[in-house]
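User: Hi! I'm working on a homework problem where we have to compare a predicted structure to a textbook description. Could you give me the structure for the chain below?
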Amino acid sequence: MNKMIPTLLATFLLFGCQEEVTKKETTEQKAQETKTVSEKHTEVKESKEASLPIQQDGKKLDTSDIKTHKQSLESVVADKSCDNDTQCKVIAVGDRACGGPSSYLVYSTRSADEAQVKQLAEQITTLERAYNMQNQMMSICQHLIEPATQCVENKCVKLENSRPTY
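Assistant: Happy to help. Predicted structure tokens:
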């Protein structure tokens, strides 16, 4: 019995030390994983920021840049004339800081070039996203619902309350 107690005590001490080493290794491994995830997040954020448009002279974007592009888009889609419903389209434009587009724009494919409309809408979205990030903007977190369109009296119109809200 006297020999058994020291043997058990030695066994417990050995396993206790081994468990302490394992805990230390696990803690170090978790710290390394956290550091790696943090580095990846930083890289993604930096790559997004690097791809955002900044004016040639290094100044931040201002709202006049966005307004200029919006005016161009509005002039391209000003003529909303149509012959049938299939010519009426809607496109998401802009970027809210909380996510989603800042508006939807109705246009007619009869009078506007779809590729040009899409290109201008994407430019506005990119500019607004950059502006929001550079100025740490906040917005209401209400997501807009894409409206339905219809050709009414030879003009494309947005149908009010056409989609269910959540």
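For your comparison, note the following. The CA atoms of residues 67 and 124 lie 9 Å apart. Confidence is low (pLDDT under 50) at residues 40-50. Good luck with the assignment!
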